[in-house]
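Re-run requested by the PI after the first attempt was lost when the workstation crashed. Everything re-entered from the original request form. Ligand of interest: (2R)-2,3-dihydroxypropanoic acid.
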Amino acid sequence: MKVYITRKIPDTGIEFLKSKGIETIVWPTRNPMSPEELNTAAASVDAMIIMSGDKIDAKFLQNNSHLKAISNYAVGFDNIDIAAATKFGIPIGNTPDVLSEATADIAFLLMLNVSRKAFYHHKRILNRDWDTFQPTLNLGISLRDKTLGVFGLGRIGLEMARRCKYAYNMNIIYHNRSRNEEIEKELDAKYVDFDTLLKESDVISLHAALTEETKGRFNATAFSKMKKNAIFVNTARGGMHDEKALLAALENGEIWGAGLDVTNPEPMQADHPLLNMPNVCILPHIGSATQEARSAMSLRAAENVFAGLEGKILPFIVNKEVYGC
Ligand code: DGY
């Protein structure tokens, strides 16, 4: 049995597959694979571990319906046509939970950095602009007792909410497809509709999946409803915000600042105007980038494909309908 892995990943997963007698082939370069290269690679293997940047469409899935499993090396799976995978009988796995804390840390880090303009101050030093103490210049805003609005209160959103509650006693409101009463009790959180989330939050942090429903949801209208002091944080998917509208909202002072770990498109152009704004902090999609999370993701992805090769249900299955249940 052979598994193709579309980028070098931590050894944990590879060692696991080897210990089970599975051969692994790893795409040898840093560049993403083209659709043709993905197709060629898939033709001669039994399962694949892919990255969130690999686009897996219906045509690929139809051509490669022999695959016994595909595991995304990510929790999000908006890069895969899940309905087509189910139609062609291919189980799809992902790597949830093990990256929740790492990703929430990045959301928290961005929020804090934006509130104190940290990246901007760093750039000031590089630009030889560190002069005498200035009591009224470049001030940040405190987060204590402010309101955090979580858009998508899943595992990562919960970890972000916990950090904000315990660090700054922030009031938690959230908007989700469904209510979570357990979390409401734990964090004294309140479920609100989308408009209320926009209007009442001092910080809005995105943790939903990218779907037709969430795509472009944070547009000019949404930004215009937010508080002037609001901080917008996106560690989920760049497709959920309209980057031009975000830039305009920041330029017009409709919101205070933004922290992004995801952009649209990725990678962001190095000369993008957002990168030079004092109240903006941008990171290159590193939410899950700790040694611990990435190793655990590697193992989780390997466990997924191994289960598929054994004809068993993937432990972290995305399309359980593929099994007719
Ligand atoms: C995820 O796991 O979904 C991360 O955003 C990496 O793509």
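Saved to the shared folder this time. Residues 291-309 form the longest helix (19 residues).
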